[in-house]
Design goal:
Elements (H helix, E strand, L loop, with lengths): L3 H4 L15 H9 L14 E5 L10 E6 L5
Antiparallel strand pairs: 1-2
Length: 71
């Protein structure tokens, strides 16, 4: 995630990403600053990650995860 297309993300206080596997687990791992998948996503799962800022490599903090079984 780099280049002018994604530079606009920095202008927003919050963003919502939607996706599916296997790319979504990789994206979440990247946002958490990991080189490997850290979370196993089930269909319909949601996560909240707080990121102080988007630099070349973000260091986000997982705040919560909701799965369909919880609702």
């Amino acid at each position: 995630m780099c280049g002018p297309k994604y530079a606009r993300i920095r202008d927003h206080e919050s963003i919502l990403l939607a996706g599916h596997e296997p790319l979504f687990s990789n994206t979440v791992a990247w946002m958490l600053g990991s080189t490997r998948e850290m979370i196993e996503f089930k269909k319909g799962a949601l996560v909240r990650i707080d990121v102080a800022g988007f630099r070349s490599e973000p260091r986000g903090v997982l705040q919560w995860m909701l799965t369909p079984k919880l609702s």
